Structure formats: structure tokens, C-alpha cells
Amino acid sequence: MAGKLSIVLFLLVVFLIQNQVSRAKEMLDEQLQRQRNNQMYGVSQGSLHPQDCQPKCTYRCSKTSFKKPCMLYCQKCCAKCLCVPAGTYGNKQTCPCYNNWKTKRGGPKCP
User: Fold this and answer.
1) Which of 1, 9, 76, 78 is the most buried (most CB within 10 A)?
2) Is the model's pTM score more than 0.85?
3) Which residues contact 45 (CB under 8 A, 6 or more apart)?
4) Residue 4 confidence class, pLDDT cut points 50, 70, 90
5) 21: Cβ–Cβ under 8 A, 6 or more apart, which residues?
């Protein structure tokens, strides 16, 4: 009787561990999918909401030594184009509005 009970308890513990591992894997997969989606979110023109400009521009301007003007123009460009190119520099081809907006002198307006 004690042998059968210990086998049942062992199987129950194995089942519970397997269930927990399966849940953890599903949660990890969901988290990775969200990260992939967030990396591309806001990269194509019109894909951002105005309230999303601040965090995207904060990252875009994170490596410049001219943070204040970078943030000013990035947010202005983001509000108009509703996108911010991926990364901290370059990649402007993914957002034509952001890329093509020029200053009076013909230089790029958006960082």
C-alpha cells in the first residue's frame, strides 16, 4: 500500500513540475514575441501613437551628446510622421516622412 502511494505521489509531483515548466515556456515565448513586436513597433510611417513618441525618441537620442535638441526635433518629427527609425542612428529609410523632412537650408530636420 505504501509503495503504491509513493508511486502516485511521485507521478503527481512529476506532473506538477512538467506543468510548471510548460507554463514557464509559454510565458517566455509570449515575452519574446512581445519584444520582437516592440522592436518593429513605430518603425514604419504612421505606426505610432503620439503618446509613444517620448520613449522612442529617448532611445533614439540616447547616444548623442546633444540630447536636448535631438529630443526636441525627434519629438517634433515623430508627432508629424508618427514613426521613429529603429536604433540610435541611421535607418531613416524605414520612415520616409522622417527622412524627407528638411530644414530651410536643405539639411535633415529629424535626427
Assistant:
1) 78
2) no
3) 81, 82, 83, 95, 96, 97, 98
4) confident
5) none
